[in-house]
Amino acid sequence: MAMLFLSDNAASVHPALWRAMQAADAPDSPYDGDALSQRLDDAFGELFGRECAVLWGATGTAVNCLALATMVPPHGGVVCHREAHIEMDEGGAPGFYLHGAKLLLAEGEGAKLTPRAIAAVIDPIRNDVHQVQPHAVSITQASEYGRAYQPAEIAAIAAFCAERGLPLHVDGARFANAVAFLGCSPWEACKGAAALSFGMIKNGGMSAEALVLFDTGLADVARYRRKRAGHLQSKGRYLAAQLLAMLEDGVWLANARHANAAARELAGAAQDRLLHPVEANEVFLRLTAPEREALRHQGFSFYDWGDEAARLVTAWNSPHEHVGALARAIASL
Amino acid sequence: MAMLFLSDNAASVHPALWRAMQAADAPDSPYDGDALSQRLDDAFGELFGRECAVLWGATGTAVNCLALATMVPPHGGVVCHREAHIEMDEGGAPGFYLHGAKLLLAEGEGAKLTPRAIAAVIDPIRNDVHQVQPHAVSITQASEYGRAYQPAEIAAIAAFCAERGLPLHVDGARFANAVAFLGCSPWEACKGAAALSFGMIKNGGMSAEALVLFDTGLADVARYRRKRAGHLQSKGRYLAAQLLAMLEDGVWLANARHANAAARELAGAAQDRLLHPVEANEVFLRLTAPEREALRHQGFSFYDWGDEAARLVTAWNSPHEHVGALARAIASL
Amino acid sequence: MAMLFLSDNAASVHPALWRAMQAADAPDSPYDGDALSQRLDDAFGELFGRECAVLWGATGTAVNCLALATMVPPHGGVVCHREAHIEMDEGGAPGFYLHGAKLLLAEGEGAKLTPRAIAAVIDPIRNDVHQVQPHAVSITQASEYGRAYQPAEIAAIAAFCAERGLPLHVDGARFANAVAFLGCSPWEACKGAAALSFGMIKNGGMSAEALVLFDTGLADVARYRRKRAGHLQSKGRYLAAQLLAMLEDGVWLANARHANAAARELAGAAQDRLLHPVEANEVFLRLTAPEREALRHQGFSFYDWGDEAARLVTAWNSPHEHVGALARAIASL
Amino acid sequence: MAMLFLSDNAASVHPALWRAMQAADAPDSPYDGDALSQRLDDAFGELFGRECAVLWGATGTAVNCLALATMVPPHGGVVCHREAHIEMDEGGAPGFYLHGAKLLLAEGEGAKLTPRAIAAVIDPIRNDVHQVQPHAVSITQASEYGRAYQPAEIAAIAAFCAERGLPLHVDGARFANAVAFLGCSPWEACKGAAALSFGMIKNGGMSAEALVLFDTGLADVARYRRKRAGHLQSKGRYLAAQLLAMLEDGVWLANARHANAAARELAGAAQDRLLHPVEANEVFLRLTAPEREALRHQGFSFYDWGDEAARLVTAWNSPHEHVGALARAIASL
User: Fold this and answer.
1) pLDDT higher than 70, residue D1
2) What is the arithmetic mean of pLDDT over A193-214?
3) Beta pairing partners, C79
4) Which residues in chain B are contacts of D99 at CB distance < 8 A?
5) Rg of chain A over CA atoms, in angstroms?
6) Which candidate, C270, C271, C314, places its Cα nearest to that of C292?
7) What distances in angstroms separate CA C241 from CA B150, C19, C267, D64, D177, one per listed residue?
8) Considering only CB atoms, which chain A residues are within 8 Å of D91?
9) A129, D96: Cβ pair inside 8 Å?
10) Could you tell me the sign of the dihedral formed by the alpha carbons of A158, A161, A163, A167, in that order?
11) pLDDT at residue A2, rounded to an integer
12) Are C234 and C30 spatial neighbours (Cβ–Cβ below 8 Å)?
């Protein structure tokens, strides 16, 4: 029997979302004119305790890039980490959506940025037309290595960005996991952001991510760009239904807590192997090739991470028995 | 009670598709690596009786533009009808996906093109760098006015395109309706096309259209462009499941026949009011404002079409009683 | 001996410009940091009687597109005439510079627009994301058929644009000819424009057009976009020298007057053949194929204009004897 | 009196070019239809000993980007050095011309690449749609630090590129200086390249660079893209005249030799200060702030290079006395 720790991005859909989609089956206005899509602003506004404009989108890549496209002109640049998803794994989508704008790459431990790291990239840029100027900053909460920004870290970055006139985008593909770890309010986990890509698909969704625009002035352009990118689905109510079901009764948070707990359990069994502190639902472990082979032989699936490590990802529905079995197997290596 | 003839693009999802999606809920490889996505080429290949490469996508706009992006360089042009969906209703998406390539607009009755109409656009184009050169042709089957191209018409266009070295794209947002009307094989309804956007969403789908590449050499670029456009969903199996369920037991064709029959019934009640012959599931009727008001007062919903007409659209599940009621109401005006 | 009436765009360079370029030969700061480039704002500001920011560029296509790129986002549209140069003859450059923004085509006699013609294009555009929204208007002064907008016509268009919130761009490839015809001030010939592409090359220049930004807030973006388009020449002083020499002692106006007078002389000899009133330096004449052949046999070069007409273009230096000879030849047909 | 070592990109125009431009003043066909433009293929073909297609362009940025645009689709990538001009100094022009294609940055001493450095960038790229794939390689001859690739080094890179199916572009902003240093034939200095941006402006030109396409199959696209970028000047004969004058009597090589000799003289006076071997016309010297101040006080102009160094650039016409004076001044520090 396969015990899957490959990725959270292929996990099953949460039952509450199935129910919500089926409840949305009666015809309603097409696109985002339906009653469910119209409720998104309020539902997320309540969650974050502030006004926001919310658009659904089919992928994290799409909502990340739509967010940035509202902030950055084609001749501009976006500061992000050298290992950010938008730089590494989106097939050049930012180049497409931003019409050739440039990613300006910063360094930072655990794929996290700091004001100092951002400054190190932008301060040497002369204010002349020969160099691409920064127009926004994008960070990932939790980061590509499963590291969460503490509220104070977010606040410091947001203050720096405000000072430099750079709107802040948060790629929250695993935002729920970050909030679950931090134990803070959702807003504290991204306070000061102009836009948040609030990931739902890795957390039990099927096909809907939420683009949350705290700077509601960006919504108009985002809507035109979404249509222009072929992302305005005609039966948008099924996407809205997923998002609303996630928020209702805190499904999003419960799912993330489950995944995080599973990751912590794995980490607990492998303290001396950890490449990064485990703060979300990803566990990066030093594991030799024979060790990985041994684990796979016992039925565990996961990705290699370079030659000497592996990445284990837990999901909203990782079975306790699988997690326990893997924890024991690692401890026994 | 509302009786809806607004559009087929907001109709409910067919039960077979719900079942197929739920049957796909167990985790599988992400993106299009899952077993269902891997079956698409064969399933459509069988339907069309020839090899093809098939990609799912979330909207007709996206698959249309991805198809064209495989054929047309940024400095090129696409011949299409002046009232083609790609020109009129996609929010400039072709300009985005094709990086500024140009739509070269042709004339034709019922939003249909002919070799002569295409030649009228491209023959005057001098072969010099000051003018945008044609690189592809796009037609819509059935057309934006619900008109079907007969196999002989398709063949003539395809022959013309081949002679001029222009690959042919077919926007088949209502391809099923066209096939149902024509009574021919699916291939005869688009024979010679390099790519077909095979619409499923208007025909009982939820969120999956099929990009069918008969020129399989286009698939590699289409896949990179799909990712780059943020359209490579991580849980692609739910989209593949929809497409396969559509093909199984001919759901696609049965659905289209139902919608077409409903449209014919409406047309039969309004022969002297028809703006266009009814060959698919759209009925364009001359109706004065008071007449439209009277129909709406009886519970029928539909869009105005200019000041003196209305567009009625039937769906895969338009209830017989609604259709009959509307037919009688029109006849009684 | 060849007597050339093909185009003004290949004419010789005016002696004053040669002198100015050679006077600029001593090294100065590169790009547009040199003393001459720095004088452009003031020199044009004086000519137009108002503050402006001026950038040189190598072609009309480039300055037109740079101007529009400051006004129109990638998802937007530009209203222009169906026969505007930006639509017909720039090889798709607007699609490139504006990242796929759309040209929204209006009708109008003599390739001239009116508020009514603009309204006819934009009023039917629903304010929704499915349709490309207008973001700017571009007119050509003098038009592609050599027609000038009277100051009152310009004022009406500018007022309409202001009311609709659409910045106005003027393609002035033959702006000098229009001013010479109108006898008004340069500003009156484009009053209300946010940007003017002030053509110099057809009027005796070598390689420099002026992008005159009356909305100086557009200059910053225009400068970044110019560099990004590879149009920031390192020895910009030679371009600035051309522009300044044009303005000095009214070379631009004297040249245009010469060309206009030559065109008038031709028109006077062919009143019954004119397709358009002659208001600049282009003469469109009904001429049969044998008539054109006869003229060419006498040594006159010009372009056919369709099957039954010809286009004659005069230049800043069209020799009196050539013009007179052609006038007589036409009269004798 | 100012003694300029700031850059070669603002130097005066060589007298032979002035003469050639003036000799080209009689009208000829516009754009690149004139006799001079038509001679470019042959003239450069003779120089390189092989067939080539040659287009003029106004800037190095433009010809670099046009070259790459013929090789790289919008979803592709170009391998170049981390300090390549296209990455550092072109204001994002590659992102514009290549429609968001990505620069894939490699390391290498002296801003030079090697097969190993290129492999280090591209070998880790998985062949999947999540990552931007390499489609071309661009190197700079001489490099941004004034380092020349030896023929054997070029051959190794070209062989590697051929093996990987990657066309090779050579940015030759200072190609003449490299050839002058290497003492080889022009072809040996770029052997295997599909395209060379042959810089003339830094070497005594006014406004014309040569895009030399050894893969002549790229010419058609390059011509359409040049027009589309607004770089098809109507009086192209003045640009062609510059290029032909450069080739005639070896002006290009004599100019480069002069500049190189001047740089060598400076280097000879500062052996222990050199940051890079001097192989072209750029000299990077360790110089403290007081030392730089002292030199400037004596009338020498140059750019700082970070806090502890300076960049001295010699030109085709650097006066012997200035060079000698600077050499002595440095030696006396």
Assistant:
1) no
2) 98
3) C104, C137
4) 74, 99
5) 20
6) C270
7) 64, 9, 35, 27, 29
8) 75, 129-132
9) no
10) negative
11) 80
12) yes
How far apart are the CA of B27 and the nearest CA of chain D, in angstroms? 20
At A1 the pLDDT is 59
Distance separating alpha carbons of residues B84 and B86, to the nearest angstrom = 5
The list of chain C residues with pLDDT below 70 reads 1
User: Do the Cβ atoms of D207 and C90 come within 8 Å?
Assistant: no
Closest partner residue to C130 among A73, A99, A227, by Cβ? A227
Q: Which residues of C touch B73 (CB under 8 A)?
A: none
Query: Which structure tokens are listed for B91?
Result: 């929010």
- Six-digit token pair at A96? 């497409």
Nearest CA in chain A to B27: A11
Q: Which of A37, A55, A59 to mutate to test the interface with B (most CBs of B within 10 A)?
A: A59
User: Beta strands A53-57 and A209-213: pairing type?
Assistant: antiparallel
**Could you tell me the pLDDT band of residue B256, with boundaries at 50, 70 and 90?**
very high
Neighbours of D158 (CB within 10 A): 20
**D232 falls in which pLDDT band (50, 70, 90)?**
very high
D99 closest CB neighbour out of B74, B224, B227: B74
Tell me: the pLDDT tens digits for B105-120? 999 999 999 999 999 9
Interface test with B, best of D68, D129, D133, D232 (most B CBs within 10 A): D129
Residue D55 — φ and ψ, nearest 5°? Answer: -120, 140
Q: What is the mean pLDDT of chain A?
A: 97
Specify whether the CB–CB gap between B226 and B213 falls below 8 A.
no
Query: Which of C7, C90, C226, C235 should we substitute to test contact with D (largest number of D Cβ atoms within 10 Å)?
Result: C235
Contact B199, B60 (CB under 8 A): yes
Question: Distance between CA atoms of A222 and A232, rounded to whole angstroms?
Answer: 11
C-beta separation of B96 from A228 below 8 A: yes
Residue of C nearest to D10 (CA): C30
Q: Which tens digit of pLDDT belongs to each residue from D23-46?
A: 999 999 999 999 999 999 999 999
Q: What mean pLDDT comes out for the span A254-273?
A: 97
Task: Compute the distance between CA of residue A273 and CA of residue A329 in angstroms, rounded to an integer.
Answer: 13
Place of tokens 């003539």: B156
Chosen from D131, D133, D144, D305 to mutate, greatest number of chain A CBs within 10 A: D131
As a whole number of angstroms, the distance between CA C253 and CA C233 comes to 27
Residue A114: CB atoms within 10 A of its CB come to 18
> Quick check: D91 and A132 in contact, CB under 8 A?
yes
Tokens of C104: 């929204």
B–C CB contacts, 8 A cutoff, strictly below: 58
Over residues B199-243, the pLDDT tens digits come to: 999 999 999 999 999 999 999 999 999 999 999 999 999 999 999
Residue B1's pLDDT band (cuts 50, 70, 90): low
Considering only CA atoms, which of A276, A258, A254 is closest in space to residue A267? A276
- Residue D217, judged by CB atoms within 10 A of its CB (0-12, 13-18, 19+), counts as exposed
- By Cβ distance, the residue of D4, D202, D229 closest to C230 is D229
Inter-chain residue contact B229 with A96, CB threshold 8 Å: yes
ipTM topping 0.85: yes
Residues of A in CB contact (< 8 Å) with C are 73-75, 99, 129-130, 133, 221, 223-228, 232
The total of other beta-carbon atoms located within 10 Å of residue D283's CB is: 28
Residue C2: predicted pLDDT: 80
Predicted confidence band of residue A274 (pLDDT cuts 50, 70, 90):
very high
| Cβ–Cβ under 8 Å, residues D275 and D307 | no
Gyration radius of chain B over CA positions:
20
Run of H or E residues at B55? strand B53-57
Closest Cα in chain D, distance from residue C211 (Å): 14
Q: d(Cα D212, Cα D194) in Å, to the nearest integer?
A: 9
